[in-house]
Specification:
Blueprint lengths: L1 E7 L6 E7 L5 E10 L5 E8 L4 E7 L6 E7 L5 E6 L7 E8 L4 E7 L6 E7 L10 E2 L8 E8 L4 E7 L6 E3 L1
Antiparallel strand pairs: 1-2, 2-3, 4-5, 5-6, 6-7, 8-9, 9-10, 10-11, 12-13, 13-14
């Protein structure tokens, strides 16, 4: 089967929803699960399957500036845990989440240095951070955007776009 997470404004605010689908594309369950909601703006969702449940990361400005949040979801989409993963005075946007054999990898776009850089950290299957934030992009004063993340079975790979040579180029 498949699962989707998306931003929806059906209640007047940007909220994150989750839905399961059969292999044939038929809806499974009684309806969409509302994961991140309230008066804040929740955007940029990224969903990963661990083999038994889902991890979901998104940007949310409920605390005054966009930060990355994480939720553990059961296979049916019920929220088991919701945690804030980033915490700095600037913004954190565009999470990319992927499951590995020992937890999740998380990459995101962060403005703590005064410009947009790509950061990476690991997160346990239970939602706890497993290490410090690591800057992945060059940290050269040029904006880095659009992180993508992959797991090879033994290591993570991070791709992104940045402007270090004047135009948008892809880096890994």
């Amino acid at each position: 089967e498949f699962a989707l997470a998306w931003v929806d404004t059906r209640n007047g605010a940007e909220e994150i929803y989750f839905r399961r689908l059969s292999a044939q594309g038929a809806l499974i369950g009684s309806g969409d699960s509302r994961i991140a909601y309230g008066s804040a703006s929740a955007i940029d969702s990224s969903l990963a399957f661990s083999g038994s449940e889902f991890g979901l990361a998104w940007s949310d400005n409920r605390d005054g500036n966009p930060e990355i949040y994480f939720a553990r979801l059961s296979a049916s989409g019920a929220v088991l845990l919701s945690e804030r993963l980033t915490n700095d005075d600037s913004w954190s946007l565009a999470p990319a989440l992927v499951a590995s054999t020992s937890g999740y990898g998380l990459a995101w776009r962060d403005g703590r240095n005064g410009f947009s850089e790509i950061y990476f950290t690991r997160v346990s299957f239970q939602g706890a951070r497993l290490g410090p934030d690591r800057i992945v992009s060059l940290d050269d004063g040029q904006d880095s955007v659009s992180p993508n993340l992959a797991w090879t079975g033994s290591e993570f790979g991070v791709g992104w776009s940045d402007l270090r040579h004047g135009g948008a180029e892809i880096y890994f």
